[in-house]
């Protein structure tokens, strides 16, 4: 499996969550439900602030 995991901060509630960079489904914030990432067929479109790369493969 190739792809990176990113630590993303939700712009609405400041929750930090780990998101896979090639997500195949929409990723919602676990606290407030805001969409953090949308699939594009390849790399996911991450719509909020990326804090760091958690794991790089």
Write up this protein.
It contains no helices and 6 strands. The chain has strands spanning 4-9, 16-20, 27-28, 35-38, 45-46, 49-56. Strand 1 and strand 2 (16-20) form a beta hairpin. The radius of gyration is 10 Å and the shape is globular. The termini are close together. The strands form 2 sheets. Strands 2-1-6 form a 3-stranded antiparallel beta sheet, with no helix packed on it. Strands 3-4-5 form a 3-stranded antiparallel beta sheet, with no helix packed on it. It is mostly beta strands and 57 residues long.
Topology of this structure?
Elements lengths: L3 E6 L6 E5 L6 E2 L6 E4 L6 E2 L2 E8 L1
Antiparallel strand pairs: 1-2, 1-6, 3-4, 4-5
What would the keywords be for this entry?
single chain; mainly beta; three-stranded antiparallel β-sheet; 0% helix; globular; 57 residues
Distance between the termini: 8 Å
Rg for CA atoms: 10 Å
SS summary, helix count: 0
The helical percent reads under 10%
Structural class given helices, strands, pairing?
Answer: mainly beta
Sheet with most strands:
3 strands, antiparallel
Order of helical and strand elements: EEEEEE
Strand arrangement in the largest pleated sheet = 2-1-6
**What percent strand?**
over 45%
- Which ranges are low-confidence, i.e. pLDDT below 50, for 5 or more consecutive residues? none
Integer average pLDDT: 92
Write a concise synopsis of the structure shown.
By secondary structure, this protein is mainly β. The chain has strands at 4-9, 16-20, 27-28, 35-38, 45-46, 49-56.
């Amino acid at each position: 499996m190739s792809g990176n995991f990113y630590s993303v901060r939700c712009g609405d509630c400041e929750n930090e969550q780990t998101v896979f960079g090639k997500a195949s489904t929409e990723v919602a914030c676990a606290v407030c439900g805001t969409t953090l990432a949308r699939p594009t067929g390849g790399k996911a479109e991450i719509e909020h602030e990326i804090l760091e790369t958690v794991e790089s493969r």
